[in-house]
Design a protein that fits this description.
Order of helices and strands: HHHEEHEHEHEHHEEHEEHEHHEEHHHHHH
Shape: globular
Distance between the termini: 24 Å
Mean pLDDT: 83
Helix content: 40-55%
């Protein structure tokens, strides 16, 4: 059975690859021919792939070459790893909700002041003496999990973290949850802080860091979402990157959770679309942006990020009026020149994407609004970061406009087919139709927009060996149009909308860590 599944997955990958190659050759021939006929081929190429994708992919290749040379030379000049001692103060703390392990029943809590000191980062099954001997080579990390009404997933997120961290190094902050989030977290034995007033995610992070003095007691702080599941190599990868003293923060490498049996057709479409988006953004753009010579990425995703404590102390985590925190924290690192952002595929973590179109729309709107609000808050300053960001913003806005405009033109050209040519009896429409189709016929719009988008889907279906993506990819273009609309719509809102940071969790499904 396992052999059949293995062969089937590879066959699916080869099928997707063959489809993609054939479509690309056909599309390229069509676009070049359309360009000769007067159709704006450059515009179609730009909408399909973008300049940023090309430039940062090339820089990513340079990074691969640089790192290969570095490995061949034996990694000379690599900074030595260090570990600051973990300090626990005996001073009295505010009373916080702390789990007492599996022996308690839900609803029975013990109020205390956090766990004992220990060697941070010991893994289950590791010999204690070996861990102690290697302690000077480790970097101590605290894990913060802010949560608001996350009863279905909080247990899975904590179990995932417990595979890699000691329970006393995990801190859950329940932001005025109305469900059993705090109770479930308390039963696992980790540190739990329960806020009685809803402060929002950024406010919750700020509160738990201050309450437990985390930036004084640890070398770094890991911030996880309540639906995040960590890869088994996440901690190794994070520590390896933080060993470089120039690294201020480590961006987690997001992987979309793929559990089609638990999702509706729309839910699977969203998950497949996000998987493609994450792969393209991280491998083809952010990998180049986080090279040691560039450090131009504008986001350390809040779902699984790591900040050096000395850097975190200098960040304004919870400024007023922002809907999300991760864009702002990343801009703060760049603006205050606190170090560079690092990202590598060895810090994978799995995220649960929205299950419904409504939750997806709300999430994308919040992300887009948070980005524009952060741009407004920080303004422009001379730097490579802003040089790269300027051209990214320019392309995002113009491609969004071009994509929506081209789709509207396509709808305009499609009207005669939908109305049996009745609209051609209207003089102004007939004249406009003749003018538009002379430059941009319906076939050019359909092939120029849909085919390149679908080719990208074929690539991801090949990499993931998931033939179902070939079906869901047929509907990715409308999702891109929705993203474009939300991107443009939230630009003016960044100057008019204000937020107290309070959050509403989307529909969740229980995690299997």
């Amino acid at each position: 059975m396992r052999t059949a599944r293995f062969l089937g997955s590879w066959l699916a990958g080869l099928t997707a690859l063959s489809t993609g190659v054939l479509l690309f050759l056909w599309w390229l021939d069509f676009v070049l021919g359309a360009g000769a006929a007067g159709t704006p081929a450059v515009l179609l190429l730009w909408i399909a792939f973008g300049v940023n994708l090309l430039v940062w992919s090339l820089i990513g290749l340079l990074r691969l070459g640089d790192e290969a040379i570095h490995r061949v030379r034996g990694g000379g000049g690599a900074p030595a790893r260090h570990r600051a001692s973990v300090r626990r103060t005996d001073a009295a703390r505010e009373r916080v909700l702390v789990g007492t392990g599996g022996g308690t029943h839900r609803g029975q809590h013990v109020f205390a002041t956090g766990g004992e000191a220990g060697v941070a980062g010991e893994w289950p099954g590791t010999d204690g003496r070996a861990a102690a001997a290697a302690a000077h080579q480790t970097i101590s990390l605290a894990v913060v999990i802010p949560a608001h009404n996350e009863e279905p997933v909080i247990d899975g997120a904590i179990k995932s973290a417990l595979r890699l961290f000691n329970r006393w190094d995990i801190y859950v902050v329940s932001d005025s949850s109305r469900d059993a989030t705090a109770d479930i977290a308390a039963e696992t034995g980790v540190n739990v802080l329960e806020l009685l007033t809803n402060r929002g995610k950024a406010g919750a992070i700020e509160a738990v860091i201050q309450e437990f003095d985390l930036t004084e007691n640890y070398d770094g702080v890991v911030i996880l979402d309540a639906d995040t599941v960590l890869d088994e190599n996440y901690v190794k990868g994070a520590r390896r990157q933080l060993a470089d003293p120039t690294v201020a923060a480590v961006a987690g490498f997001v992987v979309a959770e793929w559990k089609p049996q638990e999702r509706s057709v729309v839910g699977r479409l969203i998950s497949a679309y996000r998987d493609r988006l994450y792969w393209l953004l991280q491998y083809l753009i952010r990998f180049g942006q986080t090279w040691r010579f560039t450090s131009a990425t504008f986001i350390v995703p809040g779902f699984a990020s790591v900040y050096r404590s000395s850097v975190l102390k200098q960040l304004e985590i919870n400024p007023k009026g922002l809907v999300i925190e991760d864009f702002n924290m990343t801009f703060e690192v760049h603006h205050k020149r606190l170090g560079r952002i690092s990202m590598r595929p060895d810090t994978k973590a799995y995220s649960q994407d929205p299950f419904s179109l409504g939750d997806y729309t709300s999430q994308v709107r919040r992300w887009s609004l948070g980005f524009w609000q952060t741009v407004r808050r920080h303004g422009i300053w001379p730097s490579l970061f802003w040089f790269a960001l300027f051209f990214y913003i320019l392309e995002v806005v113009f491609v969004a406009l071009a994509l929506i405009a081209t789709a509207l033109v396509g709808l305009f050209v499609l009207l005669p087919m939908l109305t049996g040519s009745a609209v051609l009896g209207i003089d102004w429409y007939a004249d406009s139709y003749a003018t538009v189709t002379a430059v941009l016929p319906l076939s050019a719009i359909a092939v120029g927009l849909f085919v390149p988008d679908y080719i990208l889907t074929c690539v991801i279906a090949t990499v993931r060996r998931r033939p179902s993506y070939l079906f869901y990819g047929l509907f990715f273009l409308p999702v891109r149009l929705l993203d474009s609309w939300l991107t443009l719509r939230t630009i003016p809102q960044a100057w008019t909308a204000r937020s107290d940071g309070r959050w509403k969790s989307p529909t969740r499904k229980a995690l299997n860590s």
